[in-house]
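Would you mind writing out the residues of a protein together with its fold in token form for me to study?
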Amino acid sequence: MKPLVVAVTGASAMPLAERALQLLLKKGFSINLILSKGAYEVFLSENNLKVPLEPITQRNFWEERLKINAKNLNCYRWSDHSANIASGSFKTLGMIVIPCSMGTLGRIAAGFSNNLIERTADVHLKERRPLILVPRESPLSLIHLKNMTNVSEAGAIICPPVPAWYTSPKNLEEMIDFIVIRIFDLLGEDLAPLKRWSAPNK
């Protein structure tokens, strides 16, 4: 199985990133994880969670927190421009930015690679590999919408984390699972059982 790049930026939706990471590792995916500088700050402010910066320590941190074997997890600093995932010769299944801040989305749309996340996203676009951006912002300005249009025309998929009510979710965890599983449907990967839409009986 080709590796998958998962990037987490400083938008407000860290439970989505954590659950995605947990389900992917449970399925045995090889994950290359990048947290932006802002993501560390949001984890701390929203969840009182201090994620380690050092890659090996961070991998052990996620293994303990998510209660799952993390042998297939590689963590990178956002400033590590020499990482293998920054090269088009490093083949991947695709890349997902979850959540994706509007600053990150705008820089990807402009082809401006200021950190490892943006460089790796640029690589996926130029190599015509799947790139899924999960923007978490509301309301959207015209600039946001134009950036989404530009990056979509370049080949990315924009997938806002919108829950569904037809599944009759009983709690927040079920809503999170629905969003995460539907996002990875876009890669053709079924992470877990999901109550899917079926037309009502007539």
Remarks:
- The beta strands are 4-8, 31-35, 73-76, 94-100, 131-135, 157-158.
